[in-house]
Amino acid sequence: MRKRNLATAGRGLASLAGILFLVFLFATTTAQAQGPGRAARMTPEQLKAAWALEARHVAGKLGLAEEATGKLVKAYTDAQTAYTEAVNKKREELRAGGDREGARGAMRTAFEEIRKSERDKFATALAGFLTEEQAKTALGQLGGFSNSLDRMVHVLAGFKLEDKQVKAFDLVFAYSLEQAKLWTPGTGEQQDFAALREKMTALKTKLDTDLAEILSNEQLETWKQATTFRGRGAGGGGQGARREE
């Protein structure tokens, strides 16, 4: 029963699969762009630090003891690392084929399969040291392997917000979950990407407004520069949700 409930929670996250192709293009552009006003690629060390902060934030919300917190950090870091390595390997394999259009469709399918596989492994790891309810919550908060969440946590951590950091993290975690919901069309409904982009832009604008109550004017400007996507056709929304870098 416990494994079945965790699997159900994991499948709920699978609604993000439709984003894989589009955000692959978004995230790749954002990660690799180094021009003026573009955020630099996060280093492996920065990513691992962000993952630890994310896991510890969720652990705090769950009221975990230090031992369980350490296990959550390790399980999450292992899952993120395995996911990233698998995606990078698959992307290189498909790119080597030379059929760019065909590779894009194949990437979407491949990323969905990799994501489901690594999420299921993560769920199994969580079941080994958390209660059923704790594992369900942790999977819901962390099982999306969100690139935008990593960058946002990294940027906020750099501000040294101290007692305000928990509130700031609460906002970006809530944003990440709401972002995921936007990619969940109803049964038989096709995604309207123009309308979706507008909704995502509005969601990011709300997040910026909420953070304005926590950050200084200078920090807020830095935040916007670091987290707003400026790729072609993005409409300034800045919502890359997956890591394919």
Summarize the structure.
The chain has 245 residues and is mostly helical. The chain has helices at 2-13, 20-32, 44-62, 66-95, 100-127, 132-142, 147-158, 165-182, 193-211, 217-227.
Compute the number of helices: 10
Q: Give the overall shape.
A: globular
**Number of DSSP E strands:** 0
Cα gyration radius (Å): 18 Å
Write the layout of secondary structure elements.
Elements: H1 2-13, H2 20-32, H3 44-62, H4 66-95, H5 100-127, H6 132-142, H7 147-158, H8 165-182, H9 193-211, H10 217-227
Walk me through the structure.
By secondary structure, the protein is mainly alpha-helical. It has one domain. It is 71% helix and 0% strand. It has ten helices and no strands. α1 (2-13) packs parallel to α6 (132-142), α7 runs antiparallel to α10 and α8 packs antiparallel against α9. The protein is globular and about 50 Å long. Residues 13-37 and 231-245 have low confidence and may be disordered.
